[in-house]
Amino acid sequence: MIAALKQRSRTLVAIIAIPVATVLLSASTAMADAPVLEAYPSQCSLPGVTFSGPAPELASGSSPVTYSLVQAPTGMTISSLSGVPFWETTSPGNYRIRIRVDNGEGYDIVEWILLVADDFSDQDIVRTKFTDFLVSPSIVDWMNQWHPRQLIDGGWMWLRNTIGQEPHSGRQMVLLDPGMGGSAVSGNPIRMGPDWWQDDPVHGWYLFNSVWMHEQAHNFHYLVHMPDHDYWPYFDAYIHNMCEFAQQGFNRAVLENPSEYGLSGTALANYQSFIQWLRNDYETRYQPYDSWLQSGGNAENYTGDTYGAWQKILFDLAEQYGSQLLRDTLLAYRPDGLSKAIRDSADTTQRRVTLLVAVLSASAGSDLRQAFSDWGFSLDDAYFTSIESQVALEMNDLPEPTFSKWRQSPINGHYYRLTVLDLHEDEAARRARADTGLLATIRSQAEMDWIKKTWGDRPFWIGLSDEGHEGSWAWMSGEPLSYTDWMDGEPNGGTGENYVSTNWWNLEGWIDVSQTYFFQGIVELNHPPAEVFKDDFEIGNTSFWSGGSRRPPG
Predict the structure, then answer these.
(1) Partners of 297 in the β-ladder
(2) 480-506 mean pLDDT
(3) How many Å apart are CA 108 and CA 61, to the nearest integer?
(4) How far is Cα of residue 355 from the mean position of the Cα atoms in its chain?
(5) What pTM value is reported for the model?
(6) In 3D, which of 452, 327, 397, 421 has the Cα closest to residue 113?
């Protein structure tokens, strides 16, 4: 079965403009005068307009240098002397682009993403630090008047700090598509219909702090260690990958500290009016659900507006207990939140629901079983009693809601981080060398357990291969192969699969795969980071842009 699974194509998840490229180094760049490129800001554009990006910048290395394209869309060229990429007539799509620089002493490669979005209508591009909006001029006018940029970027950072990781699909894109009616599609880019936008001071916030925040949460939700919703489809209709926890938690956080998110004066008053309108909307949408419960129905069998019912429930919880209640729940379901033993004990749908209620109860300091029973959810009381004290104990030891690229392992004292992008194995190895480290060496079960608890059961490149000699597996670090965690039947790929990834999409153990899959790499340093590394998501143009030609900055 594993061999069959390995045939499934894994493609790049990053379908949007990611704010900064990943610098990729070859072994030859260890030479003092070899070129080293600065990170490159990914770009977005509209179809049919000329794209001309900035030249990659050299961080170090001797000149002169020459530039070339390693990977690019058909029609894109680059000046070999200046390094300026140029594409005269762009076509819609998401393009992975790699630029190489040579100087005779060695080379470096920088990688970035270009999104050429569909030209839905007369659109402007509005950039914030973490998000690009392709929206109509009327929305641009509204944004220029009420200045929601700090709130928008604050929402992205609230999610990043809560989840503790960056989404590897990266920079968020929001496209307002008149052809979509009132629907919204999650992921990247976020697509929303015009019904989400109302051009008035109050309801304009709905686009920027409800629909946008909810859909943006989908860019982070795979980092939250919830059970696969296929096992409990009725509850997924409510919990929806934790997105409403993020949406309502952030709504309440803004009300609790509006100045932190740039709201004051009339803008704050408008926002507060919007939240009151939102509450009234949820109350109205909850009424059919309440009637269903009064007639003997329950949450599991409800086929109506589960979204509206669940939003009202979470809104009430956040209003009564504060934003921290919902934030604590997200922290608890991080890979480094609740223990694996507690999560694994929730082995039925009813127990999964009960575990969530136990988490909320511990955070609220109040037993919420009766409230959830009133809201139509069936709980396992015996299971709740058996886990209550352990959940409360673990809820007192949740990770801090802060973000740090580098994590120090308590097992060996080494420092670890993930590559920002999904990469081929050789690209991930270059990224590790650019950070003055290597892809990780795993020396014991304790180290492997810490990695899984820190970043979850997902595939990651580690520094093990048999590229040099088939069947002779060796670490990049040169350390002896004292520990392995092969999945049953692995390694089995022969000469076509010479590199090692951790868990194959929640199936525990290592597998050998070809170099061409796209995974994040685990970078390891055996010393403290030598410098404060740039925040990959804080580089780029943060200014507003609006012009009659609708041509994005470049």
Answers:
(1) none
(2) 91
(3) 10
(4) 25
(5) 0.81
(6) 421
Q: Measure the CA–CA gap between 299 and 232, rounded to whole angstroms.
A: 12
CB contact set of 250 (below 8 Å; sequence gap of 6+): 155, 158, 159, 209, 213, 323
Secondary structure element (H or E) that encloses residue 51, with its range: strand 51-52
Cα 300–chain centre separation: 30
- Structure-block tokens of residue 176: 């307002």
Q: Please give the angle made by the CA atoms of 434, 437 and 441, to the nearest 5 degrees.
A: 140
Q: Residue 36 and residue 271: Cα distance in Å, rounded? A: 46
Q: What is the mean pLDDT of the chain?
A: 84
Residues 13 and 187: their CA atoms lie apart, in Å, by 10
SS3 404: coil
Residues in the chain: 554
CA distance 488 to 494: 16
Q: Summarize pLDDT for 11-69 with one digit per residue, the tens.
A: 222 223 333 333 333 333 344 588 888 767 667 777 788 888 889 988 888 889 999 99
412-435 pLDDT per residue, tens: 999 999 987 788 898 888 888 878
The DSSP code sequence of 344-388 is HH--SHHHHHHHHHHHHHHHHTS--HHHHHHTT----HHHHHHHH
Q: Are strands 460-465 and 107-116 parallel, antiparallel or unpaired?
A: unpaired
CB 401 within 8 A of CB 161: yes
37 φ, ψ to 5°? -90, 145
On whether the CB atoms of residues 22 and 423 are closer than 8 A, the answer is: yes
Q: Rounded CA gap, 393 and 383, in Å?
A: 16
